[in-house]
Amino acid sequence: MSVNLKRYLESKPVETSAPCRIDMGGTLDISTFYYPLRHLNPLTFNIALDLRTHIRLLPYDAPAVKISSTGFDSAEYPVDSAPFDHPMGLMFAIAAYFQAEGVHIEIDSTSPPRSGLGGSSVAAVALIAAFSSVLTRVGVYRKLYRREIAILAHALEESVAGVPCGLQDQLAAAYGGVNSWRWHGRVKEAVFEKEALFKKNALPEFEKHLLVAYCGIPHESININQCWVRNFISGKDRGLWAEIIHCTQKFTDALKRQDIQDAVEAMNHETLIRKEMTPEVMDTLADRLADAALGEGCAARFTGAGGGGCMWALGETAHIDRLKDVWEKILTERQGARLLDVKIDSDGLLYSCP
Q1: pLDDT one-digit tens code per residue, 324-333
Q2: Mean pLDDT of the chain
Q3: Neighbouring-strand partners of residue 56
Q4: Among the listed residues 283, 249, 246, 251, the one whose alpha carbon sits nearest the alpha carbon of residue 266
């Protein structure tokens, strides 16, 4: 039975937000990979950024769900017939899960659209939190914990996508910070384990070692991800995935020791392996950014599954300062490409209401 939220939202709209992320070791958070590779102790790494996606739930007169999002046409459907293959299909699927109607969902993302920073997963986390909050107020649901929100967001995204999806984007959105995520593949316990690599007071210093750039074109990660999954299932590239696990382990161990140079070497090796498997993971501009990073003694990697979107760099502070000037010059050659002014987000999911 659906729940009409109009009168509850008239007295107090609901607002939530969550951060996007940059990452390394992705794809290993997909169960297709971490179950058969669990003997190698697979892990992924991500950094939550203060580019937030904001969700606002407003009252809506019609017994339907309306969604408005920057860069997309607004859409409105009854909750029981909303299309999940729509550009906003995941958001409609979340509304259907909670059987919510009489609601206008406003989505405002501060990251570039389809930038490879986990935007759809971030929006899903924030929207589930928003529905959980208002339905707790109504008295028909309990407020979900961060872990529950992340797992539900992943499950709904995977069900709508119809293909295996990773979980690390939702976890970064829910928890924030700089973390490694170990994928145990256990049956009776959580399949993942969180390890924070930096305390909150150390994040401003670590930020000095980072650069993030938008390459000016939206990413098309689904084909690349499907290629990785398809080849892995068929028995190809298994040795390369073992190397990727080793690189990510070496990378996170180096960061814990604050050995930036060792982390740079591991990150560059991981990027080269990915390019060996799928050259299209980086276009010509991204290749030039990566070559420039190497020339300045830094590492560079695409975000998410690549194919456009963003690149990020890691290096000693002096090297990053030099690289910033080089990247800025390269990025001027493509309309819309630019460095992103970002800081590390330590908060994760936030509520603007009780």
Answers
A1: 999 999 999 9
A2: 94
A3: 15, 106
A4: 251
